[in-house]
Design goal:
- It is a single chain.
- It is built from 16 helices and three strands.
- Strands 1-2-3 form a three-stranded antiparallel sheet.
- By secondary structure, it is mainly alpha-helical.
- Helix 5 runs antiparallel to helix 10, helix 6 runs parallel beside helix 7 and helix 12 crosses helix 14.
- It folds into two domains: 223 residues, Citrate Synthase, domain 1, CATH 1.10.580; 100 residues, Orthogonal Bundle (Cytochrome p450-Terp, domain 2).
- Bound molecules: acetyl coenzyme *A.
- Acetyl coenzyme *A (ACO) binds next to helix 15.
Amino acid sequence: MSNTMQEMQTDIGLVNTIVARSALSFIDGENGVLEYVGYDIDDLARNSTFEETTFLLWNKRLPSRSELAEFTEQIRTNYDLSDRMWDIIVSLPRDASPMHALRTLTSALSLEDPGADDPSEEANARKSLAMLTKMPALIAGFDRHRKGLDLVRPDATISLSENFLYMLNGIKPTERMARAMDICLILHADHGFNASTFASLVTISTLSDMYSAVTTAIGTLKGPLHGGANQVVMIMLQEIEGLDSVEEYVMDKLAKKDKIMGFGHRVYKAYDPRATYLKTFAEGIAEDTGNTELFELSKRIEQIMDREVGSRGIYPNVDFYSATTYFSLGIDLDLFTPLFAMSRVSGWTAHCLEYLEDNRLIRPRCDYVGPHQQEYIAISQR
Ligand code: ACO
């Protein structure tokens, strides 16, 4: 039974509202803890793979060795796109933004799926697998198309991370590069009811379909207050002229009440646990690839932010050090957010599958503050 309008609480931005129960990720924002199904994010980043983490999110338990082998095989045999999808990729305007392209191409996957509207659990699991496994080809394929390079078909003998870098660059990545990419995918895989996950749930709660839910989520992730922040972090790092300019740059932004991208979080008021791990990792990758100056810039920004706003619980979030990591891996700035989507698709689909187990239409109210009883004046008299 719903409350009357008088009994309802207004909560702009849903800051203090819990909209559903979930057993997928646990976030303790005060103490900087993130767990997927009870497993600490640090443990998963150090020891797991993106494939295993996805199994965990989809099944709410770790796989046995044979289950993981079978799941990995299923993933690999689904990497490739149909000829028609490759044709769609090369028909896109070369100057389109990769996030717009990814949103369109993910939506296009539904066009050739005769079961796109099949609501059964099996069909939804199949569609989740299709989007997870094909997103690397969609992103890498579009990037090569816009650069006028030949498309690279996937290699079904390697991991999803390796395969993505292979399709993007046309050469197999080093083990360290592939591991860096895999860790980034693990760290971004799920995060409670963030804006894009919530958006996907709104869509699936209408009993629409999984492709529509993920397409909605991609559009939501794109914004600079959410997944789009990693790209803006990199633009900021490139704007700063050197270590000596950092202080002035940050203080000037703060004085103008501008946000420093890659800092702050709706839930974390302590250090984002994903950033803790990425920071150490980004340092190693930056050293390996000759990008230490960039890492030093990031560290300096963090020191100044800590001094100025740390006491207000504003710390680096996952986007801050993922920007340096992706840049060191030689990835174009405007692919940073598509990479986030390539990982988060595991969380979006996990949440949709979970929500559908006990679906309820998500339909909040608004507090109407407009006029009443206005007199309608005929158009001829206005
Ligand atoms: N730089 C400077 N000040 C900040 C920052 C920041 N990055 N983040 C928050 N603040 C300040 C705000 O100016 C505000 O100050 P005020 O109370 O004096 O007005 C206060 O902290 C609260 O900020 P809100 O934006 O109201 O907090 P909210 O919970 O709505 O926003 C958000 C969280 C959107 C992430 C915010 O911190 C932000 O815009 N950060 C920069 C963008 C970013 O990095 N986004 C990625 C988030 S992580 C992710 O999506 C993967």
